[in-house]
Structure formats: structure tokens, C-alpha cells
């Protein structure tokens, strides 16, 4: 879609997930960011299997130029909350549905944060919205990006009206 948000193409959004098995869901966040030409990085960071990496990633993200972190995990989904506890960047949490419990376990693990450490939790499997939310956060200080997000909303509106017209014959 147009030029990258920043000429340097240094990643502004970190898309992280607890396992490579989460990619089937999390790729939608990456696609949404790509659609808005937002430079981002993708990394597997596990709260339980690579705890030191989690702390390092969270603590260093801002200094590396990351502005928003999107974190997806399934089951005992501690990654988004733990990242939020070691960074002041906004963290968007994506509950990844696993074979059991339909993702309710992931949702509740991510959404029930204690007061003081916020995670913006999207719906179960809602990685696309996580990407779009990150775009909106960046769009606060990037008018050109804000305009493209408005244009995207108008496209969605047009599609609905088109379907409506077809329905009516
Ligand atoms: C979580 O455990 C990951 O986010 C993933 O959703 C889940 C299962 O991981 P794998 O066993 O597939 O690597 O930490």
C-alpha cells in the first residue's frame, strides 16, 4: 500500500507470540500492519520456556524504537501481561485459541490484569484487530496514517452498503 511509515523501516511494532504454533492466528496482525505499510518485527518469545528473553525483549523494546507491542499466547497466556509489567509501551494482547476450552482460558489469562498494568485485550483470535489497533495508536501522531485508517473505515462502509443494495435486489 504506499510507502513505509518510516523511511528507515526500523520496526515500530513488535509482534510476539508464545510459540511458532500461534502464527496461524498471529499472522493476521502482521498482514494488517503490512496493509498499512507499518514496519514491524515478528518474534517467538515464551513466558514460560524463554523467561529471560521475555524480560529482555520487554525492557529493551522502547530503546530499540518499538512503539507498540502485540503479544499473542494461548492457554496459560502470561506473555502479554508479563511484557506489560516490564515496559511502559502499550501492549495489545491476543488470546490464541487452543484445542481445549475454545480460547476462553487464553482470554481470561490475558484480560484479567491487576489495576496499574494494562493490556488492551482483543477478542479470541482477534489478531487482525490487534494490528489495526496498533495502527490507530501510531496514527495518533502520524496524520497521514490516520487518514489511511479513515479511508479503510470508509471502504468497510462501502462494502456493507454494496451488500445491502444487493440484498434489496
Ligand atoms: C503458549 O502455549 C503458546 O502461546 C501456545 O499458544 C501454547 C502451546 O505452545 P506449543 O506447545 O504449541 O509450542 O505458551
Automatic annotation (TrEMBL):
Which reaction(s) does the protein catalyse, per the Swiss-Prot or TrEMBL entry? 5-carboxyamino-1-(5-phospho-D-ribosyl)imidazole + H(+) = 5-amino-1-(5-phospho-D-ribosyl)imidazole-4-carboxylate
Residues annotated to bind substrate: 19, 22, 49
Question: What InterPro entries would the database entry show?
Answer: PurE_ClassI (IPR033747), PurE_dom (IPR000031), PurE_prokaryotes (IPR024694)
Q: Which GO biological process entries does UniProt record here?
A: 'de novo' IMP biosynthetic process
- Cite the Pfam families for this sequence: AIRC
| GO molecular function terms attached to this record | 5-(carboxyamino)imidazole ribonucleotide mutase activity
Q: What PANTHER family does this protein map onto?
A: PHOSPHORIBOSYLAMINOIMIDAZOLE CARBOXYLASE, PHOSPHORIBOSYLAMINOIMIDAZOLE CARBOXYLASE CATALYTIC SUBUNIT
Family membership noted in the UniProt record: Belongs to the AIR carboxylase family. Class I subfamily.
Q: What does this protein do?
A: Catalyzes the conversion of N5-carboxyaminoimidazole ribonucleotide (N5-CAIR) to 4-carboxy-5-aminoimidazole ribonucleotide (CAIR).
Task: Tell me what this protein is called.
Answer: N5-carboxyaminoimidazole ribonucleotide mutase
Q: Which gene encodes it?
A: purE
Amino acid at each position: 500500500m504506499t510507502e513505509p511509515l518510516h523511511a528507515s523501516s526500523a520496526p515500530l511494532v513488535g509482534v510476539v507470540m508464545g510459540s511458532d504454533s500461534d502464527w496461524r492466528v498471529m499472522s493476521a496482525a502482521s498482514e494488517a500492519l503490512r496493509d498499512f505499510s507499518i514496519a514491524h518485527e515478528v518474534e517467538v518469545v515464551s513466558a514460560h520456556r524463554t523467561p529471560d528473553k521475555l524480560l529482555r525483549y520487554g525492557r529493551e523494546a522502547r530503546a530499540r524504537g518499538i512503539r507498540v507491542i502485540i503479544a499473542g499466547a494461548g492457554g496459560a497466556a502470561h506473555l502479554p501481561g508479563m511484557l506489560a509489567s516490564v515496559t511502559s509501551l502499550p501492549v495489545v494482547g491476543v488470546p490464541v485459541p487452543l484445542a481445549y476450552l475454545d480460547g476462553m482460558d487464553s482470554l481470561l489469562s490475558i484480560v484479567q490484569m491487576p489495576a496499574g498494568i494494562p493490556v488492551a485485550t482483543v477478542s479470541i483470535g482477534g489478531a487482525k484487530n490487534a494490528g489495526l489497533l496498533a495502527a490507530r495508536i501510531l496514527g495518533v501522531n502520524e496524520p497521514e496514517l490516520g487518514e489511511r485508517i479513515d479511508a479503510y473505515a470508509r471502504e468497510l462502509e462501502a462494502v456493507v452498503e454494496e451488500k445491502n443494495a444487493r440484498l434489496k435486489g
